[in-house]
Amino acid sequence: MSVHKNVKRVTTNVLQEMKNSGAKISMLTGYDFSMARIIDSAGIDIILVGDSASNVMAGHETTLPITLDQMIYHAGSVVRAVERALVVVDMPFGSYQGNSKEALSNAIRIMKESGGHAVKLEGGIEIIESIKRILTAGIPVMGHLGLTPQSIYKFGTYVVRAKEENEAQRLIEDALALEEAGCFAIVLEKIPAALAEKVAKSVSIPIIGIGAGNGVDGQVLVVHDMLGINNEFSPRFLRKYANLYEIMTEAVKNYIDDVRSGDFPNQNEQY
Prior knowledge:
- Homodecamer; pentamer of dimers.
- This protein is an alpha/beta fold.
- It contains twelve helices and eight strands.
- The protein is globular, with a radius of gyration of 20 Å.
């Protein structure tokens, strides 16, 4: 655990040391300067600038609409707040699939314009050429397998993935391929806990789970979900550590009442 406590700046090497020592890795999403500063100062290991910003920040139904420019904007806002955490930036839908040269160009843009520390791509063997090309530029890559939200229209549902033997075996093969290609870590989303634990034991790189049980090397949640800001999303894997929806709603109502009554501002709150 000393690996975790004594670190001034989390790097991919630190994450590998944490896996090797059995120290669990903590990861949350972040999309803006103020929230990222709080998360980072609390001691989080990784901040993921997720394409989930498409949902929680912009109100889209899926992650597909968010653009590369928008991801760079969010990532830059987070990077300027962070002193300790590793900042990983999602490459948005359409920025890396099918064209590895374009994938490299877009990854370079993310790194140069946002100052992020790594990128994350969804998919396995089918995107391996994009991953390899990005890695040639010295850009760290995090993989993402299982439920991959950018492929929601292919799956047609957000149910648990890899419950069947064939899909489970393919996921293991994908994880091994990502490790061999050079990914420094992999996110496993919404798959059976036993399979996730098997993957974590089959590869030497850190495995971060979301809805993938406790047999992996770390966990990630969307910060708006775990803080209870989004009160409409309650899957089994989510533990809410606060109910900010109620707290913030009550605060706003109190402010409105004080403005309408003339109580705000009082004599001590004016010049």
